Amino acid sequence: MAVADVLNIKGEKVSHADLSEAVFNIPVRGSVLHEVVTMQLACRRSGTASVKHRSDVKGSGKKLFRQKGTGRARRGNIKSPLLRGGGVVFGPDPKSYAYKVPKKIRRLALKMALSSKFQENEIVVLDQFELDQVKTREFLKVLKSLNRENALIVTEKEDKNLELSSRNFPGAKVLRCEGLNVYDILKYKDLILLESSISGIERRLLA
After folding, report:
1. Residue from 112, 105, 120, 61 nearest 86 by CA
2. What angle in degrees, to the nearest 10, is found between the helix axes of 103-119 and 195-206?
3. Using an 8 Å Cβ cutoff, are 2 and 19 in contact?
4. Number of helices (H) and strands (E), helices first, in the chain?
5. What does each C-alpha distance from 128 to 65, 196, 206 come to in angstroms?
6. Closest listed residue to residue 17, CA positions, set 196, 145, 189, 185
7. What's the whole-number mean pLDDT along residues 158-170?
8. How far, in whole angstroms, is CA 157 from its chain's centroid?
9. Is beta strand 123-126 parallel, antiparallel or unpaired with respect to 13-19?
10. Overall average pLDDT of the 181-205 stretch
11. What average pLDDT does the structure give for the chain?
12. How far apart are CA 11 and CA 69, in angstroms?
């Protein structure tokens, strides 16, 4: 079993926690992490870019002038893509960029992301992180005592005070263990796990 020190919010060691080797200490392959992160970012794309094609432009369908005899180029109606205000020929339409990779690969990538943090000593385990009220100043005071400025904090269940206190600070994010994902783990330098969340993470990845 991998072992990590358990700290309190003052940064003092209070005990130690056993971490599953199959989740927190497996070989890391960059290609697997890249595949899953690319998928996550693709799924986040809005895909709402859109233009009006010829049939979408409002206007008369009448032919502007006769086909022959004017000496000018042939013209259809005023919605022609060749005219100002007309439709666009090859512009974008709304589309979804989302795709999926196999569930086994997604689960493996999550284990590798956690393992990379453990192997680089960037995992901090806290016994608890309780705030009496919604106060960003108190939240930052705890991060300062832990000497962490850029961190993802993982909780076992909903904690409104903690989630709202961290909301105004761009250097940190609070996630529940069921929402843990590869992109957020790799985005932040440090990973702060509440001791109670470890069992939920291991249960999810070893099921």
Report:
1. 61
2. 140
3. yes
4. 7, 6
5. 79, 8, 24
6. 196
7. 91
8. 19
9. unpaired
10. 93
11. 93
12. 89
pLDDT average, residue stretch 29-49: 96
Burial of 148 (0-12, 13-18, 19+ CB in 10 A): buried
| Domain boundaries of the chain, sorted by first residue | 2-46+103-206, 51-91
CATH-assigned architecture of domain 2-46+103-206: 3-Layer(aba) Sandwich (3.40)
Crossing angle of helices 30-44 and 103-119, in 10° steps, is 120
Q: 172, exposed or middle or buried, with CB in 10 Å at 0-12, 13-18, 19+?
A: buried
> Which ranges of the chain does DSSP label H, i.e. alpha helix?
21-24, 30-44, 103-119, 136-146, 160-166, 182-187, 195-206
Torsion 134-135-140-145 (CA) sign? negative
Q: Which has the closest alpha carbon to 102: 182, 4, 35, 200?
A: 35
Looking up tokens 């992490």 gives: 33
d(CA 2, CA 112): 14
Strands 190-194 and 123-126: parallel
Length of the chain: 207
- Tokens for 74, please give them: 């042939």
Residue whose C-alpha is closest to residue 190's, from 159, 130, 147? 147
